[in-house]
Amino acid sequence: MVGxxxxxxxxxxxxxxYSAPRFYEIAFDLNRKGEVDFxxxxxKRFSRRRVRRVVDIACGTxxxxxxxxxxxxxxxxxxxxxxxxxxxxxxxxAKGYQGELVVGDMTDFxxxxxxxxxxxxxxxxxxxxxxxxxxxxLRAVAKCLKRGGLYVFDRYMASSWTNPARRxxxxxxxxxxxxxxxxxxxxxxxxxxQVFRERMTLEAIENGTRRLYRQTHLSRMxxxxxxxxxxxxxxxFEFVQWFFGFKPHQILxxxxxxxxxxxxxxxx
Length: 268
Ligand SMILES: C[S@@+](CC[C@H](N)C(=O)[O-])C[C@H]1O[C@@H](n2cnc3c(N)ncnc32)[C@H](O)[C@@H]1O
Prior knowledge:
Shape: globular
Number of strands: 11
CATH class of the largest domain: Alpha Beta
Structural class: alpha/beta
Radius of gyration: 18 Å
Number of domains: 2
Bound molecules: S-adenosylmethionine
Strand content: 25-35%
Number of helices: 7
Largest sheet: 7 strands, mixed
CATH topology of the largest domain: Rossmann fold
CATH architecture of the largest domain: 3-Layer(aba) Sandwich
Order of helices and strands: HHHEHEHEEHEEEEEHEE
CATH superfamily of the largest domain: Vaccinia Virus protein VP39
Strand order of the largest sheet: 3-2-1-4-5-11-10
Helix content: 25-40%
Distance between the termini: 46 Å
């Protein structure tokens, strides 16, 4: 049967992505508190309405979502990975929190209730490999936001054409579990499509048992001016500010070699 099979294969491989939520959660618990402090700063500084209700788009295992809920925000979350959402539902229920946690695609979703702010962290928008998908995503986010509310997200950027790839390795321990992680982004950048490869390895050692989890997937970077144009094309948002990290004074234009941009948009 020509036509259907490749799509089914692609869907299957997407479902295998992010399928080690417990190890991912521990490994990437790096600067979560600083990131959440920055998000709260943005909500207070840039929103034209009091931020109470927030959606975390591509929320993963919920590192930002849970911390914002702990600070009193009414959280909902959306992610394509059923395993991540199941993992997060259990964490959420254990704390007695209530909110909409749904498996869904960030290019086409609706929420039961509109929100005052939306976030999309750790370059999750990179999973959108075509401009049309990014436009559809921005339109879906605009629809779920109240007027004057914010959309805050971060994106990787290539800071050099000759050697854009970046690789990090580190270990984290939680109780008897040790997770050794390695992550690399901006591998094999195709300068035309702006698509690159990300690789992640998590090695978990617990009670003498070793488990290895490997994931590689495609991601796409956008350039800052391109992003502004795409936001205009999508409509519904005004550009507020961008940063080269999670510090309020780090305005993007003042950085020589940013590898990340954090963007704040406001719903018109
Ligand atoms: C890099 S992880 C980030 C997760 C989380 N935001 C964090 O900071 O740890 C990317 C997440 O995007 C999700 N994702 C990928 N494509 C998606 C899509 N089209 N719609 C919704 N979520 C998607 C993945 O399942 C994964 O949980």
